[in-house]
Specification:
single chain; Aspartate Aminotransferase, domain 2; 11 strands; two-stranded antiparallel ribbon; about 375 residues; 2 domains; Aspartate Aminotransferase, domain 1; 7-stranded mixed beta sheet; 13 helices; alpha/beta; binds pyridoxal-5'-phosphate
């Protein structure tokens, strides 16, 4: 029997039109930030209800710039989940502020807003929630808390482009929103990110912060008042992003179909804790970047590393989303330790990310489910 092709846990879908478009940009003589970036920013703005959008070289850069835009620095605190990618806590630390780690719900893996409320002190300047796997956090609760306490919100929507809350797109309302276009996300520009803003004043400030802090003077010379980064997106990447944005709804609809297959076919013995299926009546608001169940480790004959190796040996790639950020060496040095955030730490131990990308077939999902069942038993 021929062996089955390797199934990675994520794979970008790049079409010929996009590849031709990139070749055109390469031949045009202008390859770094220019007309394609303007077009991509306009297309993103159009997609997000005409809010101002600026692109950057990554979501990580966008998170850093968003914190700088809010004037957050030493002495300030920012509430964030620890059950998220390292980028958000890292950037809070990088600007000199302190992350206040709050636990998440075991099933949605999104911030527990009762715990957020308890964590608010006069030093807290912002909340930086992650929409885990593309499931929006409770946006009503988030913005009610922010308003009540006068806090900025920086939404880490790296996994949530195309998600919506009660019919309104994530990034289409609220305060600041960050998207990622890394190849594992729902659309890609190879590397790249976007920051959604409230007004043109903020947008101009971001243009300065993403390019050395340069301000152009009336006499044609340049000045710098703040040591900005070098975070502009090249036109090559913007052209790829344009090709992807045109197909985003199609990609996300396909992801939802594949997830429906996962829920139908997933092995039930021993039972994994399956992901949140989306809010009742608002299921299409979930853009499903990841399908990541929790493993029943205490009922398994192997640990997670052995489980992942067994899948890998059968041609199935897996990931971990995520380790607990408060238990990294960086934040242990600041006094964090095990036992602080029970749900976060349990998820960090038990989570495994299974293959999910738009060009998968139902047969691929059947294969993953059958293999997981076989390995678990
Ligand atoms: C991928 C990801 C990021 C970082 O995105 P980059 O574009 O690679 O910088 C940040 N936050 C979350 C939740 C992510 O999944």
């Amino acid at each position: 029997m021929p062996s089955l092709p390797y199934l990675p846990f994520a794979r970008p879908t790049l079409d010929e039109d996009t590849i031709h478009g990139v070749a055109e940009v390469l031949r045009s003589g202008w390859i770094t930030t220019g007309p394609q970036v303007k077009k991509f920013e306009a297309a993103l703005s159009d997609y997000l209800g005409d809010r101002p959008v600026r692109t950057l070289s990554s979501a990580t850069a966008a998170l850093e710039v968003a914190l700088q835009l809010c004037g957050i620095g030493p002495g300030d605190e920012v509430i964030t989940p620890s059950q998220t990618f390292f980028a958000a806590p890292n950037m809070i630390a990088k600007v000199g502020a302190t992350p206040i780690f709050v636990d998440v719900d075991l099933v949605s893996r999104n911030l527990d807003f009762d715990a957020v409320e308890r964590a608010i002190t006069p030093r807290v300047k912002a909340i930086m929630p992650t929409h885990f796997a593309g499931l929006p956090v409770d946006m009503e609760r988030l913005y009610a808390l922010a308003k009540q306490h006068g806090l900025r919100v920086i939404e880490d929507a790296a996994l949530a482009i195309g998600s919506s809350w009660r019919g309104r797109r994530i990034g289409g309302f609220g305060d600041l929103t960050v998207f990622s276009f890394h190849p594992n996300k729902n659309m890609t520009s190879i590397e790249g990110g976007a920051l959604v803003l409230n007004d043109e004043t903020e947008a101009r400030e971001v243009e300065t912060l993403r390019f050395h802090g340069i301000i152009r003077l009336p006499d044609g010379t340049r000045d710098v008042a703040f040591p900005g980064g070098k975070f502009n997106l090249p036109d090559i990447n913007a052209r790829i992003g344009l090709g992807q944005l045109a197909r985003l709804e199609e990609f996300n609809a396909r992801r939802r179909e594949l997830v429906a297959d996962y829920f139908r076919l997933f092995p039930t013995e021993p039972p994994c804790l399956l992901p949140h299926p989306g809010y009742p009546g608002d299921e299409t608001g979930h853009s499903w970047n990841l399908f990541a169940p929790l493993l029943p480790l205490e009922r398994m004959a192997m640990d997670r590393q052995q489980f992942r190796a067994a899948l890998e040996a059968r041609g199935i790639g897996t990931g971990i989303s995520y380790e607990a950020a408060h238990l990294t060496t960086l934040f242990r040095r600041q006094g964090h330790h095990e036992g602080e955030l029970p749900n976060t730490e349990r998820i960090a131990r038990e989570t495994v990310t299974l293959p999910l990308f738009p060009t998968m077939t139902r047969a691929d999902v059947e294969r993953v489910c059958a293999t997981v069942g076989e390995v678990l038993r």
